[in-house]
Design a protein that fits this description.
This protein is an all-alpha fold and 270 residues long. Helix content is 74%, strand content 0%. Helix 3 runs parallel beside helix 6, helix 4 runs antiparallel to helix 6 and helix 5 crosses helix 6.
Length: 270
């Protein structure tokens, strides 16, 4: 029987001082600043009963007559998510090359692109949805515009960071065969970053679905309006089906992400 070795892999056998001091300092700082955000452990413990009481109210018979409307709203939410993510992907790919330190044509282009991407993701989708609702009116269109706008800020940054860690040997190999600036990025950098692209894309799809589910708060379409009204009117028989529908779609996207990544990395489905 193999015994556990509790000795740390350092000359003294103890954990290294610097990481331990950093973790202890971080924990102490968070504990000292907890009152700023009203973290109160006795209050949290006392709230468990009310949370259980609220959760128990969700266990009611669903409103089956609501299901056709739920299906239409979920399809609208899913369409908003897919369309916004598709548009954002098309815009993010060229921007990511400009925002990657090892692929950008000039340092100033890199800095300006990074600043623009930071500006695009500075405010949440809900704020941009208000802006676009005031511009184009109520409906799913301002929701799609808000989702796509903020998604470009995040997606291009994720893609750029994936490009920055590609293997330079493959890049040098393609360049050695006389490939130009565009060919090096297309045939050496982007294929290496593809698995990370897919992981980021599926994560953003997941995020956008949940973001689209609340844009209905400001009249930007989707299941959000029904979700908020069900909570305000205490329609628990509609609240639970809405939550289950969102969970089912998020889970399906997660399975799809696993399959696509396995297909790209290993050339086969798991």
């Amino acid at each position: 029987m193999q015994t556990l070795n509790w000795r740390w892999p350092t000359p003294s056998g103890w954990p290294p001082f610097a990481p331990v001091a950093l973790i202890a300092g971080t924990v102490a700082l968070l504990a000292l600043t907890a009152p700023v955000v009203e973290i109160d452990f006795p209050r949290l413990v006392g709230s468990f009963g009310r949370m259980l009481e609220f959760s128990s109210q969700l266990l009611v018979m669903p409103d089956w007559a609501y299901l056709p409307q739920l299906l239409r709203k979920m399809l609208e939410t899913l369409e908003m998510t897919l369309l916004a993510t598709f548009i954002a992907t098309l815009i993010s790919l060229p921007l990511s090359i400009l925002a990657a330190r090892n692929a950008t044509p000039h340092t100033w282009v890199y800095l300006v692109t990074r600043d623009v991407l930071g500006l695009m993701r500075a405010l949440p989708e809900l704020v941009w949805a208000l802006v676009f609702v005031s511009a184009v009116g109520l409906g799913p269109l301002p929701g799609v515009m808000a989702l796509a706008f903020v998604t470009v800020g995040f997606m291009a940054k994720f893609f750029a960071e994936a490009i920055e860690v590609v293997d330079l040997k493959a890049v040098e190999g393609v360049a050695a065969h006389g490939a130009g600036w565009f060919q090096v990025r297309t045939f050496a950098m982007l294929p290496q970053a593809l698995p990370d692209f897919i992981g980021s894309l599926m994560y953003i799809l997941d995020h956008n679905l949940r973001a689209a589910a609340i844009l209905g708060l400001v009249g930007a379409g989707g299941i959000g309006y029904d979700l908020v009204m069900a909570m305000r009117l205490f329609q628990y028989d509609r609240l639970l089906p809405i939550a289950v529908a969102i969970y089912a779609v998020v889970t399906a996207l997660d399975r799809l992400s696993d399959g696509l990544r396995a297909r790209v990395i290993h050339g086969k489905l798991p």
